[in-house]
Amino acid sequence: MYKIVEARFLAVNIKLFEIEAPQIAKKRQAGQFVIIRLDEHGERIPLTIADSDWQKGTITIIVQGIGKTTRALNNKEKDDTILDVVGPLGTPSHIEKFGTVVSIGGGVGTAIAYPTAVALKKTGNYVITINGARSKDLVILEEEMKSVSDEAYVTTDDGSYGFHGFVTQKLQELIDSGKKIDFVLAIGPIPMMKAVAEVTRPYSIKTVVSLNPIMVDGTGMCGGCRVIVDGKSQFACVDGPEFDAHLVDFKNLSDRNKMYSRHEQNSLQRYEHECNLLKKANELP
Question: How are beta strands 84-89 and 33-37 bridged, if at all?
């Protein structure tokens, strides 16, 4: 059992958890993830390690409640426990002194972009961050991103805060300004990552994305996280999760992620129905 020592919402349906996991905290590097299982009957889900504190023996994850398991996890509070937390998994981010780097986080992808931005800054890069969200109330880790940035920008789709537009528009604006960009990291929804890749492709700017395919065991045994990169099959859990954005087959990734959407929706509906029944039962005199 892994104890939750802190739990708080950062935005609507987006919650931060600090979890006691001393062995993982000692070994974790930027870009790596854990696979958790809430209970004996729960599914395994991958979640990127947003931060760690080896002295306290804790790791931090940030969770957006979308499906059954993430909704159930976001119902947990401080001092609750999680049955399994396995990791660190995946290949760590490749960190070197590129020069000027742009770290882009879309939505909860900011939680994944942040630790890599920290590592890039420590290595001596000039770090520009773009923190994107649909609206002001969904912006997360703004101050944390600013703390590791030489330049920091927030974008919102609806213009309710910061730059009115998409992260790709801000990135294009930076390129058009004549600023020499040596490396781009983009993490977020698949359409966003694909769009960033298309912005940087004409300029041959090295661009890396962190892929989020369906994942089960996290060891490459199940093959569920297969992705096509440079026309070849690779496994995100062991070969990634980070890959050259200009070589990723985003259509294949999107199609594979939709394979179980109907089952996922049915599972969520059953979970919500059970939660409503339990709530009504607890309200009875």
Answer: antiparallel
Please give the CATH architecture assigned to the domain spanning 100-210.
3-Layer(aba) Sandwich (3.40)
pTM score, two decimals? 0.85
Give the model confidence (pLDDT) of 164-173 as tens digits.
999 999 999 9
Q: What is the β-pairing status of strands 226-229 and 232-235?
A: antiparallel
DSSP 181: -
Q: What is 2-89's CATH number, 1.10.10.10, 3.40.50.720, 2.40.10.270, 2.40.30.10?
A: 2.40.30.10
- C-alpha distances out from residue 262 to 20, 89, 211, 257, 259, Å: 34, 28, 21, 11, 8
HSE-up of 37 (CA within 13 Å, CB side)? 13
DSSP 95: -
Query: Could you tell me the residue ranges of all domains in the chain?
Result: 2-89, 100-210
